[in-house]
Amino acid sequence: MTKVLVLHNVSLVRSALAALLRSEGPFEVTSSGWRAAARQSDSLRPDVTVIDLDCPGTTAVLSADKRADHQVLAPPSPVVVLASTGAPGLLHRAFRAEARGYVDKDGSPGRLVRAVRKVAAGERFIDASLASAFMEADPLPLSPRELSVLTRAAEGDSIAEIARTLHLASGTVRNYMAAATRKTGARNLIDAIRISRRAGWV
User: Fold this and answer.
1) What are the backbone angles phi and psi of residue 87, rounded to the nearest 5°?
2) Range in 47-61, 150-164, 171-185 the model is least confident about
3) pLDDT score at 34
4) Which residues pair with residue 52 across a beta bridge?
5) How far is 92 from 69, CA to CA, in rounded Å?
6) pLDDT tens digit string along 88-110?
7) What is the DSSP string of 183-200?
8) Sign of CA dihedral 18, 155, 40, 76
9) Where are the beta strands (DSSP E) in 92-179?
């Protein structure tokens, strides 16, 4: 029996995804919102975790900065992401975070079932439509730490809050913000956030 954890902030959506998986294979499925994700992951120890890239809350899971203590999945499990071709930057971010499966949200439900089976077996799964989106994406110019800081800033955290969460000095946070602003070609931090959101990096 393959244990699957479905994470989504919308109860109806996660329930529908869980019902689909239960009906299509020998899956033991648990669904959860983001607040309970760490607890569910720790108790269930899923073989596969399913995440919607367009869902608020993916930031914690998709941090490529392994030192960031705000990652949700503990212990980590192989991740299957639901994605759309219109957000290639998010696809690149998921790839950097070592997601194993990439399912086009406009595809058939059977694609998700197949992806979960393949990832549970230790393989990769990438929908062809999303592979094209990978090729079209702008390369991410930010380091994992710069991305973590910029993402926190985009979520409205103050410099002090970012420093406390990531265990950094406030001056170091400012340096990362300045580097992110420079590397994105932005005029200021707000512009850097706008550019990064448009590219799908945050």
Assistant:
1) -130, 65
2) 47-61
3) 74
4) 82
5) 21
6) 777 777 887 788 999 999 989 99
7) HTT-SSHHHHHHHHHHHT
8) positive
9) 101-104, 125-126
Continuous segment of H or E residues that includes residue 52: strand 48-52
Alpha carbon of 122 to those of 30, 78, 80, 97, 99: distances in Å? 20, 9, 12, 16, 12
Alpha-carbon span 104 to 91, nearest angstrom: 11
Tokens of 156: 């409205």
pLDDT digits (tens, 9 = 90+) for 38-80: 777 777 889 999 999 887 667 555 654 544 444 455 446 899 9
97-116 exposure pattern, b = at least 16 Cβ within 10 A, e = fewer: bebbbbbbbebeeebbbbbb
Question: What does the alpha-carbon distance between residue 117 and residue 123 come to, in Å, rounded to a whole number?
Answer: 9
The overall longest dimension of the chain from CA atoms, in Å, is 52
Q: What is the distance between the alpha carbons of residues 179 and 142, in angstroms, rounded to a whole number?
A: 8
Token code pair at residue 192 = 């850097």
Q: Which two tokens stand for residue 57?
A: 């809350």
Residue 185 phi/psi, 5° resolution? 70, 25
